[in-house]
Design goal:
This protein has about 350 residues and is of the alpha+beta class. It contains 8 helices and 22 strands. The strands form 5 sheets. A 5-stranded mixed sheet has the order 1-2-5-3-4, with no helix packed on it. The longest helix has 17 residues. It is elongated and about 75 Å long. It starts with a strand and ends with a helix.
């Protein structure tokens, strides 16, 4: 299946024989190697088969997508977008189509016709959209430097923030537990989204996803996205001192400067309760550009200063918590070891008690 600026999409026979040209208005003609779909007087930007191969979806700069019988015939036209449509794809069961558009939305259409579910939230054009393998989720990529994972039934998305330029494409892994994104910032990133499937439960939107892998100069580098695991974050609230706004702004600045990192380290280590100060600093960077990278830089700087055991516990929890929640026994053992050290130093600390309850220790 190919799509072209010559205003056609072609379905090619692998044998290279028998061309049938089908146009949206006009009779079919015979030839030798493909079907050609010509939707409008605009370039056709992408084309894809349905899972069973009986339908083809195309999209074009005419702000529509079209669903064609693969054997030939008139298309069903999907109208509603208010900008160019950049991608269109079928769901795994072939019953829905998701489209992405310059108008800042993605839309999920019944393949047989009807009103779409509109996914709104991106702050720029949406460049691609794709279903998860089980059809329950849609991942979108946008010029707003984020990718987002949406319930296919509609609802609020999980935001994958970390790229520093427009995100051009996003797709799920075959098992649905990871998402790969590609960006104009020169990186591709692999995001662990297995939290979406944790125990078959509803997604925990307040939690951040676990770990990104940044592909930089052909080298894969880990980029932890730190979080409290759901079992802790869902039931425990900590009162922490407020992070000064100018410190938060310094840590959010581009580029991140050493002076800001040094001040953040002193804010944490000089606090009455360094562990809770670190958690407050971590949370204060929510929504900042490349927040995960900035948090990691600050955390590594803190760890060079021989932090107290409860702060080491907080760091271990943020690094290992989700992996432990998902059954990684080695991660769980590392959190447990940090808990034992913190408990020996400060047995009544609220974080020690909360994590002890969570681990059942």
């Amino acid at each position: 299946m190919t799509a072209s600026w010559d205003k056609t999409a072609l379905v090619w026979r692998a044998s290279g024989r028998e061309l049938i040209v089908l146009r949206s208005h006009g009779p079919a003609t015979s030839g030798s190697s493909s079907y050609a779909f010509s939707p409008e007087e605009e370039p056709v930007l992408s084309a894809a088969f349905s899972p069973d191969g009986t339908w083809v979806v195309t999209e074009s700069d005419d702000i529509t997508a079209r669903i064609w019988p693969a054997a030939g015939g008139e298309p069903a036209v999907l109208r509603g977008h208010e900008g160019d449509v950049h991608s269109a794809a079928f769901s795994p069961d072939g019953k829905r189509v998701v489209t992405a558009s310059d108008d800042g939305t993605a839309r999920i259409w019944p393949a047989g016709g009807g009103e779409p579910i509109v996914l709104r939230g991106h702050e720029g054009p949406v460049n691609s959209a794709a279903f998860s393998p089980d059809g329950k989720w849609v991942v979108t990529a946008s010029d707003d430097e984020t990718a987002r994972i949406w319930p296919a039934s509609g609802g609020q998305p999980v935001v994958l923030a970390g790229h520093e330029s427009p995100v051009y494409s996003a797709a799920f892994s075959p098992d649905g537990t990871r998402v790969v994104t590609a960006s104009a910032d020169g990186t591709a990133r692999i995001w662990d989204v297995s939290l979406l499937y944790l125990n078959g439960a509803e997604p925990l939107w307040e939690a951040r996803l676990a770990t990104g892998l940044a592909l930089v100069d052909d080298e894969v580098r880990p980029e932890p996205i730190l979080l409290l695991p759901p079992g802790v974050a869902g039931g425990v609230r900590f009162e922490t001192e407020r992070v000064p706004e100018d410190l938060r702004e310094s840590l959010s600045a581009r580029p991140l400067r050493e002076a800001g990192v040094s001040r953040a380290v002193r804010f944490v280590l000089d606090a009455t309760d360094p562990a809770l100060a670190w958690l407050a600093l971590y949370r204060s960077l929510d929504g900042s550009e490349a927040a995960s990278t900035r948090r990691l830089i600050v955390l590594e700087a803190i760890e060079k200063n021989d932090p107290p055991p409860v702060l080491q516990l907080a760091a271990a929890l943020l690094r290992e918590g989700l992996a432990s929640e998902l059954g990684d026994e080695k991660a769980r053992a590392r959190v447990a070891a940090a808990l034992d050290a913190a408990r020996a130093a400060e047995p009544e600390h609220p974080l020690v008690r909360a994590i002890g309850d969570w681990l059942g220790r």
